[in-house]
Amino acid sequence: MTLDLARDLARDLSRDLPAALADRAAAWRLIADIAAFWGAPLTPDGGWSDVRLDAAEARLGLKLPAALREAYRLLGNRPDLTSNQDTLLPPEELYIDQDCLVYRVENQSCAYWGIPLTALDQEDPPTVAWPDVAPSVQLEITPWTARFSAECLGIVLAEPLLDDSAHVDGAEVDPADLTAWTELPRVHADGVDTRFFARPDALLVLQEGAWLAVRAVDEEALDAICEELPAPWLEH
Questions:
Q1: Which of 235, 119, 161 is nearest to 128 (CA)?
Q2: Which pairing describes strands 211-216 and 87-88: parallel, antiparallel, or unpaired?
Q3: Domain boundaries in the chain?
Q4: What superfamily would CATH give domain 9-157?
Q5: Each residue of 33-45: pLDDT tens digit?
Q6: Average pLDDT over residues 118-142
């Protein structure tokens, strides 16, 4: 598997992400670029067919938004890009809950992501998220991304950083120590504490203000990052 080392990840993502967050065609192009950077280019067999998507519509009794269909045709069957930790559901497992079309589930079923049924008529609808709570607890559904295509960008930015077969690590870190990294434009809605940072040879996601996952292009680059950032690394 060959990485596209001619690309500068920090430069290219800083340049291309704003347009991709506003236009889903640009989002699909950037997703293809990210996959290629990690040496895992999109392929014709990496998505689900219209037949399976049509069957999901018939089973659910609704029409899937254009952005969801496009994304599922593009990379719905690429768990290396979408489902290293949390799971992007295949068409047969899409379901309705909390008046939303659920398309993604946390790896221990502690959280769910969906599209409000009232927004399914939009080509690129907003997404929401909610935790798994006891029946006695008031459930709060919160905005997640302004567009489904932006959610796909967030997934493809974050999930490859959790691929145990790649050059990855994780730790709690002080965000003040990330001065050598370029912070990328925010992908998620206000209130979602997920931030992405890049440098030419690596990408990291910072969640809940302290926990990060990082992926580098090779072991040498990862070793250098782990030496530079004072943190209790899981693997270093």
A1: 119
A2: unpaired
A3: 9-157, 160-228
A4: SMI1/KNR4-like (3.40.1580.10)
A5: 999 999 999 999 9
A6: 93
